[in-house]
Amino acid sequence: MTITQATRLAPPERRSYAEVLAVCVVHAIIPDVGGKQDETAIDKRPVLGDVEVHRFGLTGDTQCDIAHHGGEGKAVYVYAQEDAEWWAADLERELPPGRFGENLRTRGLDVTNALLGERWRIGTTLLEVTCPRTPCLSFQGFWGVPRLIKRFLTYGAPGAYLRVLEEGQIRAGDGIEIAHRPDHDVTLGLALRALTVERKLIGRLAPALQAFPDRDRPKIARLVEHSAS
User: Where are the domains of the chain?
Assistant: First the structure.
């Protein structure tokens, strides 16, 4: 079965209760195989107990490529267990929490269909969905899977970058409450397609521009404006 068929015919199962399966921070700084940096912090592993979440991320975590990762609008990265299980079956390998470079591995939350600007209360934090993750050469090199970037875009489950609206603590087992859903239809899945493989959709991002990270918003706003001209 091709990736496209699997996406259309076998969407991941979603549960009624959403929770954090694991909280992950960087395990080691490793060589950036195939990427554009000398080193990468993509190798993240689960940690136990309460983890402090501040404006720019999790205590104990870091980023090497600060031009594309981290910052106020990409402080926390989330990936869904349901999508990780799809990849594990497709690649016939284990993909434990942290393997996507994520800080939070979730279960029961439809991350791909979350709206930009949607807010989640997790532990004592309040987090806001800002944008999808666009796969990079560092990710492809970390997994050692040829053409992974194209396959990741085709499957279309990018995970979610979040900004921290209220600092606090998160631990594995915390429930996830959707505290706010904005009045538009711009999902993470739609945003990924519009920014990568279906640029004709870029105009549809207009209602969600304010949710994007501060450093990315001006560029995306220009693309949206150009699409309308």
Answer: 3-185
Greatest CA span in the chain, whole angstroms?
A: 52
The pair of three-digit structure tokens given for residue 102, joined into one six-digit string: 């994520």
Q: What is the mean pLDDT of the chain?
A: 91
Contact 220, 144 (CB under 8 A): no
CATH topology of domain 3-185: M1 Pyruvate Kinase; Domain 3 (2.40.33)
Give dist(CA 159, CA 64) in Å, integer: 20
**Residue 89 CB partners (closer than 8 Å, separation 6+):** none
Q: What angle do CA 56, 112, 8 make, to 5 degrees?
A: 155
221 confidence band (pLDDT: 50, 70, 90): very high
Q: Structure tokens of 104?
A: 């939070």
Q: Which two tokens stand for residue 29?
A: 């700084």
The pair of three-digit structure tokens given for residue 144, joined into one six-digit string: 């050692």
